[in-house]
Amino acid sequence: MPPQIFRLVLLTVTIVVTYLIARYLLTPTTFGQHGFYRGDALAEHASHTPVFAGRKSCLECHEEIQQQLFKGEHKTIGCESCHGPASAHVADPDSENKKPDKRNTLTCARCHEANPSRPATQKQINVNTHYSGQKCVECHVPHQPNEVP
Amino acid sequence: MKNSITRRSMLTTLGGAVAGLMALSPARKVKAAVQKVFVSTNAPKDYDPYKHKWLMCFDVDKCIGCGLCVDACKTENHVPQGPTYFRTWIERYIIKKPKPGSGDIRGEVIVDSPNGGRGGFSATTVPREEILKSFFVPKLCNLCEHSPCTQVCPVGATFDAPDGAVLVDPKYCIGCGFCIQACPYGCRFLNPETKTAEKCTLCYHRITRGLKPACVEICPTEARIFGDLKNPVENDPIQAFINKNKVNSLKPHLGTDPRVMYANLDKEVR
Questions:
Q1: What percentage of chain B has pLDDT greater than the value 90?
Q2: B134, B156, B212: residue with CB nearest A54
Q3: Could B204 and A76 be called an inter-chain contact, meaning their C-beta atoms sit closer than 8 Å?
């Protein structure tokens, strides 16, 4: 073999081998576990901590509210929709400052303020003219809207 | 001068190098296994992505546009606060009555989404008597079976997980933005802090723990329904939904085959 061809072959082999070694060393071990991506990414996405605890966790302690809630129209609403995220409260139920926010009038208006885009089945009021100055809870029970206090 | 490299020493060195490389492979595997045991992650250990297939359904007629889902998503996933960063959002469609004598079926279509619907929608400026019909459409990642965003990613950072979620590996993402342009549903954005592409993960940290995604958990009217096609439960809401309603997906002509289904979808929704 002529020396110039030999050197070319040697150079090519060196480049290919260097590339293979670099690829081998730099690829994470879980790459290709499920497909053309890093398998560990799945576990990393799963490792975040939930902020909302879920209705089940709430009803473990607040059983009496469940009984009330399931009788009325508001049975489809999750606890945290109105009361805010509660996983800190679930982890430490006794701590006063980790308790979810108390609901306020704005929370009711968010779903019940009249809007032509809302489905007709949704009960809607004009907040400014519907007994303005009074609080919603003076006439309505949020956990059981078909009842009068 | 005598050459110091003999054939024998050369062969020994080469053989040693090859043997060393071969020994490296099991060593790395052992290291990875050891790391898995000792490095504590919060990830649930008993979750097998091959045993699930997630699906999300919407009932457009039930959405009241309260925007609680948008809020919940931002809180749950620590999405940047700006008005262009959303993993889920709500669009308001207002279809006007056609002009008298124009011969059209419907008039102008107005679509808006002020701050993604976060904080709810204020009353529209369009007079009520001009509105033919109006409704809200919640949107998020359409969980395409043939996802364009995965196909364009040059570095393998975006992928279809075996359970149907389309995820981004933030450690691999180079922030080139190809996927953001490729998504026909506009479901992706570039996170201004990490400079990587971000999208709905179906609250992967929640569904792997047996919880519902935050938006589904928070929706007051059950307009969002979430379920597992591989593990139907008793009175499965997702099966009931598909049996009861005539469902459709967004932009079916693109062949992306989304697994996010909509019931009562209007022709104008894109």
A1: 66
A2: B212
A3: no
